[in-house]
Structures are given as C-alpha cells and as structure tokens.
Amino acid sequence: MLDEVERWLATRSWSAADRPLDLLLAAKRAAGPAGTISVVLPALDEEATVGEIVGTIRRDLMTPDVPLVDEVVVVDSGSRDATARVAADAGATVVDRDAVLPRVPAVSGKGEVLWRSLLVTRGEIICFIDADLREFDSRFVSGIVGPLLTEPSVQLVKAMYDRPLETGGTVVPAGGGRVTELVARPLLNLHWPRLAGFVQPLGGEYAARRSLLERLPFPVGYGVELGMLIDSLALVGLDALGQVDVGVRHHRHQSGQALGRMAAAIYRTAHLRLARGHLVRPRLTQYDRASSGFVPSTHEVDTEERPPMLDVPEYLHHRAA
Ligand SMILES: O=c1ccn([C@@H]2O[C@H](COP(=O)(O)OP(=O)(O)O[C@H]3O[C@H](CO)[C@@H](O)[C@H](O)[C@H]3O)[C@@H](O)[C@H]2O)c(=O)[nH]1
Ligand SMILES: O=C(O)[C@H](O)COP(=O)(O)O
Predict the structure, then answer these.
(1) For the segment 265-319, what is each residue's pLDDT rounded down to a tens digit?
(2) Whose CA is nearest to atom 11 of ligand 2?
(3) Which range marks the domain in which residue 114 is found?
(4) What confidence tier does 43 reach under pLDDT thresholds 50, 70, 90?
(5) What distance in angstroms lies between residue 316's CA and the mean position of ligand 2's atoms?
(6) How far apart are the first and last CA of the chain?
(7) Nearest ligand to the C-alpha of residue 112?
(8) What ipTM score was computed for the predicted complex, to two decimals?
(9) Greater confidence, 293 or 102?
(10) Are strands 93-96 and 71-76 parallel, antiparallel or unpaired?
(11) Start and end of every Glycosyltransferase 2-like domain (predicted)?
(12) What is the mean pLDDT of residues 146-164?
C-alpha cells in the first residue's frame, strides 16, 4: 500500500459513531445553505424495499427535533411495479426520469438517474442511497453526510460496511461485493493505487457536495461509482475524499450473469479513463445451457456518458431559479 494511502486511512476513515446527531445538527445550522441535504434514491422495480427506506429516513432524520435531511427524492428509473406509489405513500418526492430534461431522452441505467437527480434537487449536499437495501438504518445517511458538515475540505464520502452474501437461504458473512472484489478492487489497485484505501468503492451509498457532482461526467450505467471516484480524485485530490463505517449492509443480490454485465460496464469505464479515445468493443457475450448445448447471448455494454451538469443550460436555469 502507498504511504499516502496509509496516511489517508488514518485521517479520512471514520465511524458513524464519531459524529453524534447533535453535533451534525449544530454543524448544519452553522453551515447555512451549504448544509442543505437532499437524499436521492435511484429506483428500478424496488416496491419491496423503497417504502421502508424512505419511511426510516423521514422518521429518524426529518422531524422537528432532528431536521438533518431537507428532502428525500426517489428518481424512478422506468419501474414497472408499484415503486412510485409506494415511495410517494412513504413521503418521498417521486420523479420519473423521463420528466426530467425531456430535451435529452433518458436511457436505461443507474448513472442516468443519478445525473438527472441534480436537476430536481435543491440540496448543496446530495446523498445517494440504493433503494434495494433491507434492514435499513438511518446511520447510512447521517454517517456519510457527517464529514461533509464538519470538515470543509471534504467533498465526497463513501459508506463502508460488512457485506454478507445472502442467497437461497444461506448466508456467507463476508461473501458479498463480488464485482468489487473480482473487478473493481484489482483495477483500482493496479491503475489508481491512490484509491486503494476505499473499502467499498462500488457501494451505492455516498454523499457529495453539489459543487463537485456538477463538474463530473456521469457514466449512464453501473460504471458511475468507479468513474466518479477516479474523476473526483483527479479533480479534487485524495484528501477531499473520505469513508465512514456504517455497520452492515443487506441488499438484493443480482445473478452471476447480471454481475458479469455490471463488471463489463465497470471495466469499460476504467478503460475509457485509461486510454481516452481508444475504443474497446463494447459488447459482452454470455452463455446459457440449453438442450442443444451452450447458447450465447450478446449484450451491449454501457458506453455512454452524460456531460458535467454545469454544461447543461437547463441546469444553470434550475440553479438560478
Ligand atoms: O437501471 C437501473 C439499475 C439500477 N437502479 C437502482 O440502483 C440501485 C442499485 O442497483 P443494484 O442493481 O441493486 O446494484 P448492485 O447489484 O447492488 O450493485 C452495486 O454496484 C453498483 C456498481 O458500482 C452500484 O451502482 C450499486 O449501487 C451497488 O450496490 C437500486 O436502487 C436500483 O433500483 C436504477 O435506478 N436503474
Ligand atoms: O458491489 C458489488 O460488488 C456487486 O454489487 C455485487 O454485490 P453482491 O456480491 O453483494 O451481490
């Protein structure tokens, strides 16, 4: 490990318990407009879990006694289930991705809705939380916004946690994060060793200052987290990044093949940053057993990236309004 990373781990890795709620509330009051917080949940068919997450945030962090969070926004990513209704019933503002920036037709993908969320939120701190989390604890939010409220030099904070793999009734205590361990961590260690201190580089729970997010390009799919870390390092430097231990994360696990497509998108995002301009073939072929033998199916790998929001005229208008 680089000496710089060892130093970073000693000074930029915290636990949620380091900053109790009363400290955060005082820091928020002192920060004024810079302390406004929007929580954003990207959601594609998450009716089973989105309501409880929204409800927990509202119950714990949006009360007269604990007014830490100013708004909770669910950006619907084309759900065909009752995600929008369940989220609205739980008290979230629900926005359909197609209703945001209609001039630019939405494509599928998680990064796409995170990018669009900048146009419909008002917080100067944006906190992204996956909508498929189970046994959700509001420390996921208060923990990661903490350093942004108390440390002016910090600009992006990722959650870190234990990741059990819970499938088919069995639990492997530290078995989760398969793409993280097989793809993202090796890529980061080999090509961007200054980012090797992140325990959960792909985690979907992170908070950042708007002033950083609006300057970043957003890969439209699952490359968004890796791209954001690499680009943030280049833009603001390692000491502006941090991580906070928030406990244990339980979520819905995707199939091996879906994770293969995620891995391809992440590799592609890394490759683009390693060799801007040189195109790899953006397709992935996978195999399923059928009576005739193994059948290939080929999928497009996300290649599109949205430009930094500061380059979008509608965003400048939204901020001026
Ligand atoms: O097209 C999509 C796909 C996903 N999601 C939402 O994004 C979140 C995370 O998606 P999920 O499929 O649960 O991702 P994971 O398999 O858990 O992948 C991990 O790794 C990804 C790659 O870094 C991150 O984007 C995820 O946040 C992180 O949890 C969930 O709320 C989804 O509903 C969308 O909004 N639109
Ligand atoms: O973050 C990851 O590595 C992928 O989302 C896979 O996570 P899982 O192995 O916990 O399903």
Answers:
(1) 999 999 999 876 444 556 777 877 888 877 888 888 777 889 999 999 999 999 9
(2) 253
(3) 2-320
(4) very high
(5) 36
(6) 47
(7) 1
(8) 0.98
(9) 102
(10) parallel
(11) 38-150
(12) 96
Nearest ligand by distance to the CA of 181: 2
Ligand 1: does its nearest atom lie under 6 Å from the Cβ of 286?
Answer: no
Which residues face 76 on adjacent strands?
43, 96
Local structure of 132: helix, strand or coil? coil
Q: What is the DSSP letter of 45?
A: S
Burial per residue of 76-100, b for 16 or more beta-carbon CB atoms within 10 angstroms, e otherwise: bbbbeebbbebbbebebbbbbbeeb
Distance CA 300, CA 302 (A): 6
Cβ(137) to ligand 1 under 6 A?
no
Task: Output the domain CATH number for residue 166.
Answer: 3.90.550.10
153 lines ligand 1 (CB under 6 A): no
The DSSP bridge partners found for residue 128 are 40, 206
Quick check: CB of 253 below 6 Å from ligand 2? yes
Which atom, in ligand 2's list, is nearest to the CA of 183? 3
Instruction: Work out whether strand 206-209 and strand 156-162 pair parallel, antiparallel, or are unpaired.
Output: antiparallel
Domain count of the fold of the chain:
1
How many angstroms is it from 115 CA to the middle of ligand 2?
22
Residue 165 forms beta bridges with which residues?
Answer: 172
pLDDT at 302: 77
Residue 165 Cβ inside 6 Å of ligand 2? The answer reads: yes
Helix ranges, 13-152 (H): 21-31, 50-61, 83-89, 110-117, 139-150
Ramachandran angles phi, psi of 42, nearest 5°: -75, 135
19 pLDDT higher than 90 = yes
The 10s digit of each residue's pLDDT in 237-253 is: 999 999 999 999 998 98
